[in-house]
Amino acid sequence: AQKITQTQPGMFVQEKEAVTLDCTYDTSDPSYGLFWYKQPSSGEMIFLIYQGSYDQQNATEGRYSLNFQKARKSANLVISASQLGDSAMYFCAMREGRPGGGNKLTFGTGTQLKVEL
Amino acid sequence: GAVVSQHPSWVICKSGTSVKIECRSLDFQATTMFWYRQFPKQSLMLMATSNEGSKATYEQGVEKDKFLINHASLTLSTLTVTSAHPEDSSFYICSAYPGTVHNEQFFGPGTRLTVL
Questions:
Q1: Which residues contact B37 (CB under 8 A, 6 or more apart)?
Q2: Do B46 and A100 touch (CB under 8 A)?
């Protein structure tokens, strides 16, 4: 089974609107972390937001928020007030186990977001 | 924030030659670095986990003799693609983990390899 599933290969949103990018995950480890990264056409991976499995509140970072529904195993990214510069590929990723040097990330297949005027 | 550099940013080589890619953590020490490979329009696939002073741990299906990884110091890991072939053409990205203060890995800008 896929550990990270992103079901939206592509999304369009109008400038200034909010958009939700879906991510579901599968793990039996009680301790895990969920990440969202943005990859513009230049290729660099830009960290956006992190949610730990034991965090009680949903993570927020500026215009980014993570809608964490633990029972449903979903960690959707919400981008508010979309900007043209938000057009990029977005990846959801999971780290299983507690934070540590050896804990690798598993990435989803990504969602290509295009912000339109 | 933590900065990771990669060199070169792009390289074109002839089939059969070897190419070395460097990954450096510029303002922190990283006992663990990771090497990923990404084909166009696809996700990042972990190739190997690089630990300072020890052998790398390769993911299933990755040829360790083909992709040589050396983690010589706490700030430098290298990936050498040996006897490169056109099918090795890809985007290679490294990341480094600064420690438990941070939750996230920090990624380098990537190296685009084209093998002719």
A1: B44, B45, B47, B90, B91, B92, B93
A2: no
Amino acid at A116: E
Nearest to B105 among A105, A109, A110 (CB): A105
Report angle CA B43, A90, A37 to the nearest 5 degrees: 90
Q: What six digits make up the tokens of A30?
A: 């009680």
Q: What pLDDT, in 10s, does the model give residues B18-64? A: 999 999 999 888 878 999 999 988 999 999 998 888 889 999 999 99
Partners of A19 in beta bridges: A79
Provide, as residue numbers in chain B, all residues whose Cβ is less than 8 Å from the Cβ of A33.
103
Identify all chain A residues contacting B110, using CB atoms and an 8 Å cutoff: 43-45
